[in-house]
Amino acid sequence: MNIDNSAALHAPMASVLEMILGALPLPEGPLLDVGCGAGHKTALLRSTLNVAGSLVGIDCDREALSAAARGGMWAIAGDAHMLPLRTACCGAAVCLATLGMLHDQRTALRELRRVVRPGGWLVVVTATTAWTFWSVRLRDWIQALLAERERRRVDLLLTTPEPAVDLATLIRDAGWREVRAGAFVIETGDEMSRRVLPLISQNSARQQLTPARLREYDALVADADMELLPLMLVATGW
Ligand SMILES: C[S@@+](CC[C@H](N)C(=O)[O-])C[C@H]1O[C@@H](n2cnc3c(N)ncnc32)[C@H](O)[C@@H]1O
Hints:
The chain is an alpha/beta fold.
């Protein structure tokens, strides 16, 4: 299994991203992509948002940035906790599959608030966070959700569980307003996405949980249903 194959790994998220971004207004100024990586989402961002103007990507991985630049964005090396940008210089921002990797999410969200002009929006997508900070508390919610999905026979389900509310609080505390959050269960039949998302999350979970929470977490992931469920949290703020 190649966990560096990010394009294939993130493919199941495309339909959700398109839906969320499609409902947002065109940014009035450059669109910022924090943690842009190799720019796998550049084409999707441009086509869904109809962004003809500048797309600015920031990442700490210079090798990935070279690829992002070739894909047609302004690629800048920098740290999400201290963005190398002027205040209010961007029209809107996205932070995709990156927030869960940051050691200080509050600072990064405040930095995003600083560089996006008042009235501009932010979209955060995170798959890993649900499996790290909130995974133990998710047990009942996931089971209810699985039952509901079975009843309605749908592949993609949006709901607002406790972890999404927590993500909303985090974003609101960083100065964003009108924050809305939801969680998506994604089932694509894509074996790699089904296996890799929880795998990545388990690694970061192990570093962050206390020994007691870790034992509880191990008990949780021992349940195959839980482990194979890709879950994605999405939040927007203004
Ligand atoms: C899973 S990748 C997601 C890439 C891209 N957003 C996408 O959806 O395809 C996470 C990215 O966050 C970057 N990253 C992690 N910590 C960072 C930090 N402190 N500052 C800037 N970028 C960071 C990594 O280098 C990596 O490219």
